[in-house]
Amino acid sequence: MPDTNKPEYLSSWSIEKSITGPIMLIIAIIFLAVLPMFTGAGTLRLMIEIMALVIMAQAWNLLAGYTGFVSIGQQAFIGIGAYSLFIISIETGLNPFLAVPLGGLIAAAIGALAAPALFRLRGPYFAIGTWVLAELFSILILNSQRLGSGIGLNLARIIKTIPRNLRTNGTYWIALGFTALTIFLVYFLLKSRFGLAIRTVRDNEASAESVGVNIWKVKFIVFVIAAGLTGSAGAIYYLNTMFINPFATFSVEWSALFIFVVIIGGIGTIEGPIIGVLVYFFLREWLADFGTWYIITLGVIAIITMLFAPEGLWGLFIKRFNINLFPVGAKVVMKKRNTEN
To answer: Does residue 297 lie within any of the structural domains?
Structure first.
């Protein structure tokens, strides 16, 4: 006979919690916010470049690492955000700092318009479709004299109205603000019930649909958010350089860079893209004088990582020390059923 005294348990989902990562991030933001008081313009411009790439990598990781959308055309939104900033500032005289969020919004709007067509494609066809989107915008600009064609656009006339220190410091603080916003947005988005739906769609669309997840809606929201973040980062990156042309802006090398930093750092984690970006810039600065050996070294490192540490550097750190600063996963919790009336 069955043991009627044996306790019964119910299972439920519980989101992993930790305040260590957010606190460390807040401390880092405070430190970086006062950095312009202690360093020069060259260092600040490098920091702007680093932070812009962190935003782009987080957006790409949100697509590929958490939703399963492998895109090789996110440079489309880099270019859209950057060109939007340049055109708005040049044509209207609007302060370029104010045009940064507009560049992100325009990129998000273009992403929303392109999503229905791209979502008809699956797997590698989706990846190729995003690349085609980037090429279409590149061709459009190359054939438009008003958009600078192949010559490009320059912000010199607009930027001269802003004092040099304010120009560099302002761009730096905007980059810092958008970096913090991106990390917190991705973190809290993934910790929500919507984040659980995102990972369910990635793991098994049929299972997600069977439990009531609107797959198309989840994909659409994530794609638009990623497009907006990437567009904002593109606007920041090229505001820092003050010059833009379609050959560099819409280059597929951007996607190769995203894949490299996310794989090196750890795909499907918030910490991974940050670590990957820092590793990339360290290698770039260290190997800058070695010509083509720089590219070869990056490729060798990526191959070794994929073969021996597919979870990336942060994944190895978690396995070794069992520390996760930004946990966004969910675990099953067993609770004893209350059988008392």
So the answer is: no
In whole angstroms, what is the distance from residue 70 CA to residue 43 CA? 33
The tokens for 125 are 């066809």
Residue 30: other Cβ atoms inside 10 A: 9
CA distance 57 to 269: 11
Cα separation, 94 vs 121, in Å, equals 39
**Burial readout 185-196 (b: 16 or more C-beta within 10 A, e: otherwise):** bbbebbbeeebb
- The answer as to whether 228 is a domain residue is yes
Query: What is d(CA 264, CA 305) in angstroms, rounded to the nearest whole number?
Result: 6
CB 305 within 8 A of CB 1: no
Cα–Cα distances in angstroms (integers) from residue 268 to residues 68, 119, 232, in the given order? 10, 21, 22
Tokens 């790409």, residue? 60
Structural domains in the chain (count) = 1
pLDDT in tens, 117-172: 999 998 899 999 999 999 999 999 999 988 888 899 998 888 877 888 888 999 99
Flag whether 150 is in a domain: yes
209: containing domain: 21-251
Confidence (pTM): 0.90
* Residue 14 within a domain: no
Name the one residue in this structure whose structure tokens are 């994929």.
306
Residue 204 sits at φ, ψ, to 5 deg, of: -165, 105
Q: How far apart are CA 218 and CA 199, in angstroms?
A: 10
Q: Are 176 and 49 in contact (CB under 8 A)?
A: no
Predicted confidence (pLDDT) at residue 4 exceeds the cutoff of 70: no
Element (H, E) at 333: strand 330-336
CA atoms within 13 A on the CB side of 295: 4
- Check if the beta carbon of residue 44 is closer than 8 Å to that of residue 170: no
